[in-house]
């Protein structure tokens, strides 16, 4: 499952990344045309490897959320409000047309936040996982799903002192991979591949420094009975030891490669005894702002290598979401110097590697 990045356009490129004038686009919906209401901004739009799409909209009258799905040329509405669902925050879709989404649900006087599921054919919505909401409770913010229907989500929040990172089949039940522990907490976005490798942006208690952020890659649950929550021996990282203000969104493909973007310079320090600060500095890696691809290695270990896809040397001013497919092709959002334009690009040259940008007229 990959993401289209502009819900205001809602136009999906069906070609390989090439110069925009050579690209072909399929328009699947427009606001106020053929019964489509407002498109809800701020929610990344998922597209499966089979071309299926799901996206949220809002009523023109009540502002309630609903879903629209696109499959083989057909738009299908999924009504939410009748079941008490609203405030869609995140969406995922698999190759078979299963749709997972994060939303709020109201039942009587109770409010829930959870992961719910339906299909592109508007199958009845059912609960995959939910939490009763109250003052300072755990809550799910994002959901990811791979092409074969492997789901990943987290309800860890540092202030709520609880929650877990979960993984499971869309037609089964999720199980916890990591629990809140004072080591792992306060997660942001995740991605997952068909093998069940979950790449998640974590805030974590670094063993070699202050409170930090990392993209951690986890593919099995902790089994050490003496340290069920804190065991780092089964945890890999794509990038680590960043400040808590550096929050890259991960994308992982079926080869296990992770792509991400940085908008600040970071330095990672590695020690003679991994994850032991007092053992002496072995090496350091500094990454400048840019878009990167890497193969994750065990947390605190080297060697590590990073392939830079783009940086700020040209016209790019900052980077946003990043996705990578199984061919290693990387697409990323970026804003441009001296303009108000944002776009989707595939490489270091903002002209030659442009796919689409704001204000561009798309033919359908």
Low-confidence stretches: 4-21
User: Measured on Cα atoms, how large is the radius of gyration?
Assistant: 20 Å
Biggest sheet statistics: 6 strands, antiparallel
Q: How many H/I helical runs?
A: 0
Q: Which structural class best describes the helix and strand composition?
A: mainly beta
Tell how many strands the DSSP assignment holds.
32
Quote the average pLDDT.
88
Helix content: under 10%
Distance between termini?
23 Å
Beta-strand share of residues: over 45%
What is the 3D form? globular
Summarize the structure in words.
The strands form 9 sheets. Strands 17, 18, 19, 20, 21 and 27 form a 6-stranded antiparallel beta sheet that branches. The chain is globular, with a radius of gyration of 20 Å. It is mostly beta strands and 364 residues long. A hairpin with a 6-residue loop joins strand 11 (110-119) and strand 12 (126-132). It is built from no helices and 32 strands. The chain has strands at 2-4, 11-13, 25-27, 38-39, 45-47, 53-58, 65-71, 74-78, 85-93, 98-107, 110-119, 126-132, 143-145, 150-154, 164-169, 175-179, 184-185, 190-192, 198-205, 211-218, 236-242, 251-252, 258-262, 266-271, 281-287, 290-294, 297-298, 306-311, 316-324, 330-336, 342-345, 354-357.
